[in-house]
């Protein structure tokens, strides 16, 4: 079958990514996606077949964007120290969370609500970046640049500290009345989600988790 000309598939994906912060993946309506993309519903079925296949494609594209940024940050560090490579990975992850936080919050809600599609995708794909991050932490520990704490302790300290406040800002803005959101946005942003704030938190935690005094 000849593929129809145009970019209907990309428009459908972009429309869905814009809608998920409001609907979540669970409540995402195929008809609403098609209407927002200004694409005939038949084109949706031509390109993706079912909502399940479409949902999987959305999750794959979002995750691949994240993983490419993560690995790119590590590769960009090149011959830098293990600590600097780890720092680059944490900053890349935090900036991705900042850029996509409404969408990620919606997917977290789906995950907590037991959405089988999101759960299955997370199980199949999350080990990819977790393995990478574990390797970076262990490299820094072996180099004597990070204390030898157990991984279940050190990973949350490094990563939740980096992007937890970013998500908290989004939650605060969500619960405020609409007319009161701009002022908190200007007040909170520089302290929670700006590049400077993220870098300051990451550098503080890396210093705090550095080798104990008297050790190399």
Give a quick summary of the entry.
The chain is mainly α. It is 77% helix and 0% strand.
Model description:
It is a single chain. With 216 residues, the chain is mostly helical. The protein has two domains: 1-49, Arc Repressor Mutant, subunit A, CATH 1.10.10; 57-208, Tetracycline Repressor, domain 2. The chain is built from nine helices and no strands. The relative contact order is 0.10. The model has no long low-confidence stretch (mean pLDDT 88).
Topology of helices and strands:
Elements: H1 8-23, H2 30-37, H3 41-48, H4 51-77, H5 82-112, H6 116-142, H7 151-175, H8 182-192, H9 195-208
Helix pairs in contact: 1-2, 1-5, 4-5, 4-6, 5-6, 5-7, 5-9, 7-8, 7-9, 8-9
Order of helices and strands: HHHHHHHHH
Q: What would the average pLDDT be, to the nearest integer? A: 88
Number of domains: 2
Q: What is the CA–CA distance across the termini?
A: 65 Å
Structural class, from secondary structure content?
A: mainly alpha
Q: According to CATH, what is the class of the largest domain?
A: Mainly Alpha
Radius of gyration from the CA trace? Answer: 20 Å
**Low-confidence runs (pLDDT<50, min 5 residues)?**
none
Number of helices: 9
Gross geometry: globular
Sketch the major β-sheet.
none
Helix proportion range: over 70%
CATH superfamily of the largest domain: Tetracycline Repressor, domain 2
Proportion of beta-strand residues: under 5%
Q: Please give the number of β-strands.
A: 0
The name of the CATH architecture of the largest domain is Orthogonal Bundle
CATH topology of the largest domain: Tetracycline Repressor, domain 2
């Amino acid at each position: 079958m000849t593929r129809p000309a145009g970019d209907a598939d990309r428009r459908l994906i972009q429309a869905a990514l814009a809608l998920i912060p409001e609907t979540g993946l669970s409540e995402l309506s195929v008809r609403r996606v098609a209407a927002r993309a200004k694409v005939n519903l038949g084109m949706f079925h031509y390109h993706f077949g079912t909502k399940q296949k479409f949902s999987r494609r959305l999750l794959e594209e979002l995750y691949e964007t994240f993983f490419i940024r993560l690995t790119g940050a590590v590769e960009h560090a090149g011959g830098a120290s293990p600590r600097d490579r780890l720092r680059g990975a944490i900053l890349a992850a935090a900036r991705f969370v900042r850029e996509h936080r409404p969408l990620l919050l919606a997917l977290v809600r789906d995950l907590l609500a037991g959405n089988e599609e999101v759960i299955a995708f997370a199980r199949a794909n999350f080990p990819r970046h977790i393995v990478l991050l574990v390797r970076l932490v262990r490299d820094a520990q072996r180099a004597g640049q990070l204390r030898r704490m157990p991984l279940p302790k050190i990973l949350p300290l490094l990563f939740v500290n980096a992007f937890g406040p970013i998500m908290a800002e989004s939650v605060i803005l969500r619960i405020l009345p609409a007319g009161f959101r701009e002022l908190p946005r200007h007040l909170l942003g520089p302290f929670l989600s700006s590049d400077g704030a993220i870098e300051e938190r990451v550098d503080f935690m890396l210093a705090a988790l550095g080798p104990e005094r008297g050790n190399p």
